[in-house]
Fold these 2 entries.
Entry 1:
Amino acid sequence: MERLKQAKTSLYKKAYEMTLKVCGRVVLNVWRICKSGLKLKNYDLENVILELFKNREPVFNNWTLTKLYNDQQQKHIVLKYFIKRINYVDKIINEMGTLTQSSEQTRLFGCEFESTIMRGSQFRIESVLMRITKKCDFLLMSGSKIQVSHQKPLQSMPLVLEPPKLFYVDPVLILDFQSLYPSIMISHNICYSTCLGHIDDIFKPGGKKRFGFKIDVDIELKKLFHGKTKQEIMNDILIAPNNVVFVKKHIRKGIIPQILEEFLNTRIMIKESQKLHKNDAYIQQAYHFRQFGLKMFMNVTYGYTAASFSGRMPCSDIADSVVETGRHVLKSIIKNINQNKEWGANVVYGDTDSVFVHLLGRSREDAFKIGNDIVEKISNQFPYPMELKFEKVYDPCILVSKKRYVGHRYLSPKDKPKFESKGIEIVRRDGCDAQIKIMEKTLYELFMSKNLSKINSYLQKQYAKISNSHINLKDFILAKEVKLGKYSDIPPAHAIIGEKLEKKDPMKRPKYGERIKYLIQQGSDLDKIKDIACSVQDFLENKSSLNVVYYITRQINSALQRLFSSFDIDVRVWYGNMPKGMTKANLNRHNEQNIMSTKRKAMKIQNYSLNKYFKVNVCLICFNSSEIQICGNCLQNPATSLYLLQKKIQNIYKTKEDLEKICKNCASMENYEIEEVPCEEYNCDFLYLKHRQKEIVINVLPLLKKFVQVIQENSVDENF
């Protein structure tokens, strides 16, 4: 244990749970690795296991585990529980290929194993740059924060057009560049070693001028361009759209363009080599991580030159030149497409390196022909390796706003449509599953039938189901990231719940960035969300009711409204005009039922409230319309009614037993005589089914037995 020591708990280390350090060992935080490598709503171990291995595992809280461990006959359950979890951690590392990926990146970037996991992209870029610059007799400059703050600020921004908020029933082409910024740096020879600075900069005596954060940079222009005419000088330099000058490749080839070009060619070679080893899974995985590392390096190189806040070698002249060149390229593409009458196309949206082209009145087959023609003609206008690619066709689609759109994707004319979205609630993880499911079904109906009446009818049914509690509670769980210690005096709802969980059990303190699951319970109109939000455990224990109005108006309708506002349709009006009818009241467990005299047995049956569990205004035996809960026809046939009621009681017991068997099989407790498996896996549907069935056993069974008793007494009275 002498090798164990506590690392200094800096904010970064505390945030990334790296307070434990073992000398001579690399300590991996698997939860953090899963969080960065997987896109899930929450990153509990059980949820990751379900995602990767399709296995459902039970969850026992610390109190349950302590109780089991203190029992000598059940101690082995706890040991098996933790051994299984430890084995799954090892399987997760292997399934995600964390060690293989880190090993490949270590060989690629020439840095130590731990740094590829713990350090950022800046460290990887510098590890490559330092090896290359050393061979070229260059040194990397590291400016202080004061020096960096004195350099010229970044002035350029990528071109992002504001799209018209419309529903497009005609094909929309999506064209984009493959790695635009790295391609610009290669083709235009943009580098620290080729930059001569801004054309308007003032030179001081001796050929000195400001470059980056250095003021006394010597640029020997006289020696470089001595005896050359203006035309010859213009052939040797390239002036970026922001008036920053770079020398061309025949004068000096930039170090960064050399690295990027070599990485680009290597990546192409690796992808070709993958085709030769299709049956070897290990080589396929190693090659995949190798080419992925090259791709990520190329994509973040521009960011290294623009990191003016945290970077060690930022240069606004270089960063702005890349961005302005990208803007210029995108504008020229938009102009060429819009002016070509043969294509009859119109660019409706552009974002940094991609354009959305609307083809009014064209078929899907025509769209693919025109898309290939556009790509072929426009790509020839740009130097290698800049290349415009035809990615896909949306037919139909909705453009909501910048970086927010949804549509049916086609990769070929005969391809089956695939639902694809970006930026809207369907792909975001801070909403509930009910919101996502309803939005997907609504958009599918819109794209396939384009019939708003069907959509209205579907939404009315969903509103009714939610209002009448015909729901799966799991679909309404919200999950948001909590970062305790970074909030003001009034933290948000999920942070308050995280603090409450820590007070109950200090071992359950939420990790930095962990997603806290919670529900919004019923409250008064004056209550704030943070006052009526509660954890799933508290919601079930307190037998709370779901805040139906909040989920319909604030979660579902607000998301739908952002989509349907392009049709001048107000979804809120649809909900407001819905015939609410008689909603199912919550069963009042605290008030005793008034039992009337045996002479008014029909009225006595009416007083037993089962509104929460059975349909209102229907007989609970024959399901025909009835003002009382057992209709007159069923009361006139006591033998049949008695049989059906007893059958219902048997089914309730059987359902409870079946659910418990499923949980016992999942928890490997088939041979243990326990009444209920103490599992708290809130991502499992069976947990909520068990909870509802438990409520039925507690609240409904006594009432059904009362009905049986009433019918038996009624039949006895009639016999007399």
Note: The chain is about 50% helix and 10% strand.
Entry 2:
Amino acid sequence: MLTESEKALREWMLALPEDKAQLQALRDETEQQLSTHATDPKRRDEYQSKLDILDSELRR
């Protein structure tokens, strides 16, 4: 059974754009959010997971 956080991450992944420029912009925005808004460890993990996924998509 997926947690709410895992479900949200899955939905986010399915909505990722295919265009590399849009992916890069989303990655930059997520990195900024990680550095400015993620103060609790769970939130940091969520942002870091998104960054890892975006990095993987950009390398394709």
Note: Helices lie at 4-14, 20-37, 41-59.
